[in-house]
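Posting this for the archive.
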Amino acid sequence: MLRPATILAVLLTALTARAEPARIVTAGAAVTEIVSGLGLGPQIVAVDTSSKHLEETRDKPDVGYVRMLGAEGILSQKPDLVLVSGEAGPPPVLEQIKAAGVDVVVIPNGYSLDNIDDKIRAIAAATDRVEDGEKLITRVEADVQALRAATAANEGERPRVVFLLARHGGNLMAAGTETAAHAMIEASGGRNVCASFTGYQPLSAEIFAAATPDFVIVSQSVGGDDTELLARVPGLGTTPAGRQLRVIRVDDAAFLGFGPRTPSAATEVALALRQP
């Protein structure tokens, strides 16, 4: 006999499931990756700027930065479903799209590996791909188990890490708590040396005076080789990470997106953090 909770879940899925859309606009890298992972890549007619990294979306029309979408560009694609991540906006634009009779589904963000399953299920329900969603979740959970295995060894030794993000204009910022980067440092078995502040802050020598990193994690998109990178950051060159040239380059969309590729991206970082 089915448990009451199971019956409720089945009923909710049936109520929230929709007919499979023919024309989808996505905004948010993880959202786009999940839609593609559900086999709906051909139905995507336009994406935001952060979603252009996928092979099947590179030639799709770009509807702008996820936080600064435009209603006109989205509606010109004649979508029957718009799927956006939680940071998408501005809110009046989303309301304008809804007012035009288009379904808009906002997929909540979350800085936890557990949130990936939630995102997949929400998108699968919105696109009538529930069964494909569960298959994708099975693959993601296998990658999460691989990550946990990679971080289980030497659990008591958490390397000190700083994550550097390039803002507009190329200025490097360090990631504190309440950021995706902080969550991923923890998930990868590291310890964020910038946990004393929240959000992102400009780099300074003072940041590394009290807590010196063993490793630097930085986006692949940041220009220059590793030596040049370390030279740009005041005080970083004299830290263990700087002296031993311990720089780990990551794909931002994979490592920070909390999408299907995030667990495997974190596993790669976890293994790199444990290199002698």
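The radius of gyration is 20 Å. Residues 130-152 form the longest helix (23 residues).
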